[in-house]
């Protein structure tokens, strides 16, 4: 990408940052909007938090709903996708013997969330092994449906997986879950701003995603979407001023005149709302800079880099291109000590990229965002070529 675009970000110039997928990176104009909201709050905290906040929170909901294809009354701001999914997981009425159907590609924090829920409720987790490499929507859907039983109450899937950077074709599995009366809960942590979303078209009961990753808001900005028919199932993690004793009654309103779904989750004690309030600014930044065009360039760069590394290692990719996340790719590397490779890439080459073991594979997960360039990809290839060719015996010996 152009140097001018890279200069709009705040990243250190001495680091090749190839890990946007973990925490994102916020462009300068959006960060300035964030600081502007924080300054406005501090100038008159009581007015801002006590009298204005519940009205101010409406604009991010409306802007995000228009961007993601849903009604503004069906989406609410949360701290992160893990929080949104915890709200769902800990609200559903599960009993001993009920099953939560999921895959072997899920994010570890949510694996722990469901394990916690099972310990509390007596429900069970059933893990489907996704056929690999992922090259067929039908094979994916068939594997998920084959795991469904009369005891399945929840289908929990990532839309884009964290460890393997796969774009799961979830729509048909969700439709089958709906037909069987199974709640569908989708981890969309990596999807807003990464792929074009139509939440109503996807049809999941519950969907939570981060804005602070690929949409590039400041950290601590995410959403929970719930279909109107299932919003009444949810309880907030924190009871605060948005809650009312009548919240479960038909047609009930929250304390600030919105639905209980919105008021109970949005108003949960004193916090910094600035990251969520910058959602409109982040959406505008993306429009001003033709970010879907930027993303297309990043996709090509990511795929080309993965192809080059594959030719170097001789290792097959985890999926065909259509099932790989557009700007993020999990690249298999030869057997090694992942921690040593990760640390050496950073300390010797100034490259920030996650390297880890997933099942029986060693993975380097590449993220490509608008501030990255082809020379940076070449630097990564050169570094891995040197490390894996000349340093592999020593690295492997430390495992």
From TrEMBL:
<keyword id="KW-0663">Pyridoxal phosphate</keyword>
<feature type="domain" description="Aminotransferase class V">
    <location>
        <begin position="46"/>
        <end position="353"/>
    </location>
</feature>
<dbReference type="Pfam" id="PF00266">
    <property type="entry name" value="Aminotran_5"/>
</dbReference>
<keyword id="KW-0032">Aminotransferase</keyword>
<keyword id="KW-0808">Transferase</keyword>
<dbReference type="GO" id="GO:0008483">
    <property type="term" value="F:transaminase activity"/>
</dbReference>
<dbReference type="InterPro" id="IPR000192">
    <property type="entry name" value="Aminotrans_V_dom"/>
</dbReference>
<dbReference type="InterPro" id="IPR015422">
    <property type="entry name" value="PyrdxlP-dep_Trfase_small"/>
</dbReference>
<protein>
    <submittedName>
        <fullName>Aminotransferase class V-fold PLP-dependent enzyme</fullName>
    </submittedName>
</protein>
<dbReference type="InterPro" id="IPR015421">
    <property type="entry name" value="PyrdxlP-dep_Trfase_major"/>
</dbReference>
<dbReference type="InterPro" id="IPR015424">
    <property type="entry name" value="PyrdxlP-dep_Trfase"/>
</dbReference>
